[in-house]
Amino acid sequence: MKALLAIDMQKALINERYDLGDRVNNMELILKEFSKQSLPIFLIQHTSENKEDPFYINGSGAEIYPPFKKYGTEIIQKETPSAFYQTNLLEKCKAYNVDELVIIGLNTEFCCLFTAIAAYDREFKVAFLEDATATVNNGEVYEMQDLDIPDFIGTVLHWSGAIKVLDTEEYKEWSNN
């Protein structure tokens, strides 16, 4: 069975401060598609015990982005970039008989990337939807002015040959076959 990992789609990252363009719309499109098919949707929520952290567990930044929360089958809290590390995600996947994971969310180069690799290491088939991941960072952060971070991460994962990298249109076509 296929499941969706919707990673860190939280108020701290999806807000008016960051222009994520159509990527948030693409995320919602995929959430709706999984919901329509009654497939499991794991909302991955980054949390912290540090009151100064934007993901402080009792702060508003840690909350799942309100328009997306209704799609969740389960909320899995994590404290590291990997949704598998010291969480019950693997057990939840087993309980739902999941063998294929589709990854969307934030930040592409951290939690989405780490989780995709961890899923592959746990022998899941993994599809990474490049245009349904986003980041609040830009090339300046990495001292590479014109770096398109989601495209770069998608290319690295694609070249690995281990993870299927698609955009939302390719995914719709691929998932219908």
Automatic annotation (TrEMBL):
Q: Name one Pfam family in it.
A: Isochorismatase
Q: Respond yes or no to whether keyword Hydrolase is given for this record.
A: yes
Q: Which residues form a coiled coil?
A: none
Keyword annotations of the record? Hydrolase
Which SUPFAM superfamilies does the annotation name?
Answer: Isochorismatase-like hydrolases
Ranges where the Isochorismatase-like domain occurs: 3-140
State the similarity comment. Answer: Belongs to the isochorismatase family.
State the protein's name: Isochorismatase
| Organism of origin | Oceanobacillus neutriphilus
